[in-house]
Design goal:
Elements (H helix, E strand, L loop, with lengths): L7 H21 L3 E5 L2 H10 L6 E4 L3 H6 L1 H8 L3 E3 L14 H10 L5 E4 L3 E3 L4 E5 L3 H7 L4 E7 L3 E2 L2 H23 L3 H4 L2 H5 L14 E5 L10 E6 L6
Parallel strand pairs: 1-10, 2-3, 2-4, 4-7, 5-8, 7-10
Antiparallel strand pairs: 5-6, 6-9
Length: about 240
């Protein structure tokens, strides 16, 4: 019997078509890109892109955590992993801040850098906002190869819509996440957390400090950045 409530096939078609538009434009900008329908497929694809012996670093990314790439790399036991985001079972960062900064700097000398993105436009631009700047820096320079995992929910029309998505949704959500899960009450005092709306504040703990747009790479860097678009909602 036909199940009219099941629209999984329609979603898969729509997500694939949307992603293919982005992929075409990313490739035009010298960025490798591919579409997978699920986080499980993304995991297998990403593992295949990471050779034995490669030094792997990561940025702060819920998408990576949802895909499960770091635990799988640890289980595979073929790669050294640089992880400044490592936390204990209660969400507390294992390393103190100065040590975390030192670990984050090591990422610039990694073979492969894993990260997500805050937004990606139809014409292939990736828009990201950082508090430390370590993630956006490593995306553009340092690591030999970058793998960006993103859900279809991060696809937006243009840069203006990307800024809107980040300031009004991703940044407040991330600040709330740090306050709730990582035991940083200072983030809970941010105006965007208290009101649910960005006011372009000047708070000491403002989470939006470094904004970057990747609009492609030079021909000599073609293929350095590799984007995996997943046909699911991932991350924030």
């Amino acid at each position: 019997m036909l199940d009219e409530t099941d629209i999984s096939q329609e979603k898969e078609w729509f997500y694939r078509e949307l992603a293919n538009k982005v992929i075409t434009n990313l490739k035009r900008l010298n960025i490798n890109a591919q579409y997978v329908s699920s986080r499980r497929e993304a995991l297998l694809v990403m593992l295949d892109m990471i050779p034995e012996g490669a030094i792997v670093a990561r940025g702060d990314s819920i998408s990576l955590d949802q895909i499960g790439i770091i635990p799988e790399l640890i289980k595979r036991n073929q790669n050294s992993i640089i992880d400044p985001q490592k936390r204990d079972a209660n969400g507390v960062f294992i390393a103190e801040q100065e040590e975390r900064l030192a670990i984050a700097r090591e990422a610039f000398f990694s073979d492969i850098y894993l990260t997500g993105t805050n937004a990606i436009t139809i014409d292939g631009k990736m828009v990201n906002v950082d508090g430390w700047g370590n993630r956006v820096s490593a995306m553009v320079f340092g690591p030999k190869k970058v793998i960006v995992a993103t859900g279809v929910n991060k696809i937006v029309k243009d840069v203006d819509e990307a800024y809107e998505r980040i300031s009004q949704f991703a940044a407040p959500m991330n600040a709330k996440r740090h306050s709730l899960k990582h035991h940083w009450p200072e983030f809970g005092d941010l105006p965007c957390v208290r009101t649910g709306k960005c006011v372009d504040c000047n708070h000491d703990w403002r989470i939006c400090r470094y904004t970057m747009i990747i609009a492609g790479t030079l021909p000599k860097d073609k293929g350095r950045i590799n984007v995996v678009i997943v046909g699911e909602e991932l991350g924030i």
